[in-house]
């Protein structure tokens, strides 16, 4: 693929601005959100369901955030765009009818590789919302119908131990979630700190489809995929 993006620069610049609005997070605001979520997970807050048991209120604890070590092992359920095109109602038994209706509405355009439809789906599905507590910012942009590019700004506190594991794990999970939501064949992910690229890696869908993520070392796997880590001061 040619690296000369000049013919589509105007379009991509506009798309990048839009996607930046969708996924870019103010670092200070995101830090406050992460702190609130940490408090919620450290001390479960009970909530009252509708009803009582034996005259006493029944408490349900809020779910804790998943441990970072599990992030790359899980991912969103993939959207079957051919099914979404064919059926106006959910066929998977998992997707809410309103969300499926949105998929059905845009399925034809997504399958044609229309970038505008990609952006609409990314905004509506928000596939990486659950990853925001682990980053300072996260941006996604389209390269073409077959490729997405994502960049996440690291949280400095999560870089203090096992920095490469954090970078690799985040890159893998971001790529898996993007592959799940759109029918692209490759996703490039960068991990950034103060605009310096600490990690750059390009994932191929075909390669990830063969992996049993529960059993891999994310650092080793990202290296196998050609991931390049920047040299950091000790």
What is the number of beta strands?
A: 9
Largest sheet strand order? 5-6-7-8-9
Mean pLDDT: 78
Structural class by SSE content: alpha+beta
Radius of gyration: 19 Å
Order of helices and strands: HHEEEEHHHEEHEEHHE
* Helix coverage percent: 25-40%
Termini separation (Å)? 37 Å
**Low-pLDDT regions:** 1-51, 58-65
Strand content: 15-25%
Shape: elongated
Q: How large is the count of helical segments?
A: 8
Major sheet summary line? 5 strands, mixed
Task: Kindly summarize this structure in a few lines.
This protein has 234 residues and is an alpha+beta fold. Helix content is 40%, strand content 19%.
Describe the structure.
Helix content is 40%, strand content 19%. The strands form three sheets. A five-stranded mixed sheet has the order 5-6-7-8-9. It has a two-stranded antiparallel ribbon with strand order 1-4. The protein has a two-stranded antiparallel ribbon with strand order 2-3. Helix 1 (9-23) packs parallel to helix 5 (115-125) and helix 4 packs antiparallel against helix 5. The protein has eight helices and nine strands. The protein has helices at residues 9-23, 27-42, 81-86, 97-111, 115-125, 163-181, 205-208, 218-224; strands spanning 46-47, 52-53, 56-57, 60-61, 135-144, 147-154, 186-193, 196-204, 228-229. The longest helix has 19 residues, at 163-181. With 234 residues, the chain is α+β, with helices and mostly antiparallel strands.
């Amino acid at each position: 693929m040619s690296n000369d993006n000049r013919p589509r620069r105007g379009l991509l610049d506009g798309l990048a601005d839009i996607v930046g609005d969708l996924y870019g997070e103010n670092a200070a605001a995101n830090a406050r959100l992460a702190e609130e979520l940490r408090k919620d997970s450290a001390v479960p807050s009970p909530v009252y369901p509708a009803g009582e048991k034996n005259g006493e209120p029944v408490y349900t604890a809020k779910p804790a955030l998943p441990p970072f070590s599990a992030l790359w092992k899980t991912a969103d359920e993939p959207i079957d765009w051919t099914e979404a095109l064919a059926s106006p109602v959910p066929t998977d038994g998992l997707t809410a009818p309103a969300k499926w209706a949105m998929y059905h509405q845009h399925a034809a355009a997504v399958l044609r590789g229309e970038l505008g439809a990609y952006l609409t789906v990314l905004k509506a599905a928000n596939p990486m919302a659950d990853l925001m507590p682990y980053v300072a910012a996260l941006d996604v942009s389209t390269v073409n119908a077959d490729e997405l590019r994502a960049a996440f700004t690291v949280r400095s506190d999560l870089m203090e131990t096992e920095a490469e594991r954090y970078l690799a794990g985040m890159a893998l999970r971001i790529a898996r979630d993007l592959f799940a939501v759109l029918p692209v064949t490759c996703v490039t992910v960068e991990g950034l700190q103060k605009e310096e690229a600490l990690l750059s890696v390009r994932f191929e869908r075909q390669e990830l489809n063969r992996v049993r993520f529960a059993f891999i070392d994310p650092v080793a796997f990202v290296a196998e995929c050609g991931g390049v880590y920047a040299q950091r001061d000790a």
